[in-house]
Design brief:
It is a single chain. The chain is about 30% helix and about 25% strand. The chain is built from four helices and ten strands. It has helices at about 5-30, 145-160, 170-175, 180-195; strands spanning about 35-40, 50-55, 65-70, 75, 95-100, 105, 115, 120, 130-135, 140-145. The strands form three sheets. Strands 1-2-5-6 form a four-stranded antiparallel beta sheet. Strands 4-3-9-10 form a four-stranded antiparallel beta sheet. Strands 7-8 form a two-stranded antiparallel ribbon. About 20% of the residues are buried. The radius of gyration is 22 Å and the shape is elongated. It has one domain (about 30-180). The protein is of the alpha+beta class and about 210 residues long.
Length: about 210
């Protein structure tokens, strides 16, 4: 093989590999990237509770969705008030409120105290899952068991112990989507350097849905 033939073949293979890598990364970039932060709200007439703020931090438009708490023996539960519907463009946020107290009194729910059709007084917080799912679809955009168990515990504690807006820093970390790890930041820097993605803010660089 001559020098020029080898050079031409090498350049062609390099171009093919570059296109393939770019297409593969674009698919990764189009996956949902969601930031969820849990907080507390209080309104007039003694109405208060918890709320999730969902932000689309990805590159693609996020279709209309719903938040669910899922348990294999209980099914699905959506405690949030109906919010604005429609797509969520990159960078946009949407808030979902869950009323837990009205006129200073807890609003009870039986969903946590029924398992496999049997009544239970002590729910075990080990198999709940936080889901963000496309509306009228089985497509799950995001799922996290740590968040699901923490969210279920917060709901039960609010009802049982009257914990209105009370949770620890450690509980807050479990209620929110995870922050980026050091290795995640390093891989992102490499991708930015190669021109495969835009520079994110590190607090928004969170895990994606499976």
């Amino acid at each position: 093989m001559s020098f020029w033939s080898g050079l031409f073949i090498g350049a062609a293979l390099g171009a093919i590999a570059s296109v393939a890598a770019d297409r593969a990364w674009r698919k990764v970039e189009l996956r949902p990237r969601i930031r969820a932060r849990f907080g507390h709200f209080k309104k007039v007439a003694g109405i208060s509770g918890g709320r999730y703020t969902i932000q689309n931090i990805g590159a693609a438009v996020m279709q209309d969705y719903e938040i669910w708490l899922y348990h294999p023996q209980r099914g699905r539960y959506n405690p949030f008030e109906e919010s604005v519907i429609g797509v969520l463009h990159p960078g946009q946020k949407r808030t979902h409120e869950m009323i837990q107290f009205k006129e200073g009194k807890q609003i009870p729910t039986n969903w946590f105290h029924s398992c496999d059709g049997k009544t239970t007084t002590e729910p075990v917080f080990d198999d709940f899952e936080f889901l963000i799912q496309m509306k009228d679809s089985d497509n799950v955009l995001y799922r996290n068991k740590t968040m699901g168990n923490a969210f279920a515990r917060q709901c039960v504690d609010a009802i049982r112990h009257g914990r209105d807006g009370e949770w620890t820093y450690g509980e807050q970390q479990q209620l929110d989507t995870p922050r980026a790890t050091k290795w995640g930041k390093r891989w992102t820097r490499i991708a930015v350097f190669l021109g495969l993605r835009q520079q994110p803010t590190w607090e928004e660089d969170v895990e994606c849905a499976e």
